[in-house]
Amino acid sequence: MDIIRQRKPLRVLVVLYPQSPLMSKPEIDTILHQSIAQLNAVESDARALFLATWPHRTVMVFDLCNESYDFAQAHQPQDLLVLAIHFQTKEKIKIGETLERNAREVNNEIA
User: Fold this and answer.
1) DSSP assignment, residue 71?
2) Dist CA 109 CA 111 (whole Å)
3) Chain mean position to CA 70
4) What secondary structure letter does DSSP report for 41?
5) Cα separation of 79 and 76, whole Å?
6) pTM (predicted TM-score)
7) How many whole angstroms separate alpha carbon 23 and alpha carbon 53?
8) d(CA 110, CA 10)
9) How far separated are the first and last CA of the chain, in Å rounded?
10) What are the residue ranges spanned by the domains of the chain?
11) Chain centroid, CA 12 distance in Å
12) How does DSSP classify residue 76?
């Protein structure tokens, strides 16, 4: 993806579905590593922000190349492009840019 190669700041929403092999052991490091691999990104550029696990979904959010993120100001939403990775099954993984309203929701919920 061009946005990854350009190393522009962005937020990544990861959604694990029950059939995903990652659901059996939803650990933040494992999910982050698999997500980075799918994006062909650099792991040192990532900063995990959020992980929530429910019986039928696990959701994680992390930033890539967001040098301006400040934990002291985390309550202030940032207006970042949001990519979504849906790990549906071992073979079915969907990656794409979210709609603007979904990006706004993710950015506001993380704040």
Assistant:
1) G
2) 5
3) 18
4) -
5) 10
6) 0.91
7) 9
8) 13
9) 26
10) 2-110
11) 3
12) S
pLDDT value of position 26: 79
Contact 10, 65 (CB under 8 A): yes
Residues 72-98 have pLDDT tens digits of 776 677 889 999 999 999 999 999 999
Q: 45-48: long-range contacts (C-beta < 8 A, 24 or more apart)?
A: 45/7, 46/12
Q: What phi and psi, each to the nearest 5 degrees, are found at residue 11?
A: -115, 145
User: ∠ CA 67-68-72 to the nearest 5 degrees?
Assistant: 120
CA-to-CA separations, 3 to 10, 17, 49, 80, in angstroms, rounded? 8, 25, 20, 12
Question: 101: which DSSP letter?
Answer: H
Write the pLDDT tens digit of every residue in 3-28. 888 999 999 999 999 999 999 887 89
Q: What angle do CA 31, 59, 102 make, to 5 degrees?
A: 125
CA angle 6, 39, 44 (to 5 degrees): 70
Write out the two tokens for 57. Answer: 């979904």
Q: How far apart are CA 106 and CA 108, in angstroms?
A: 5
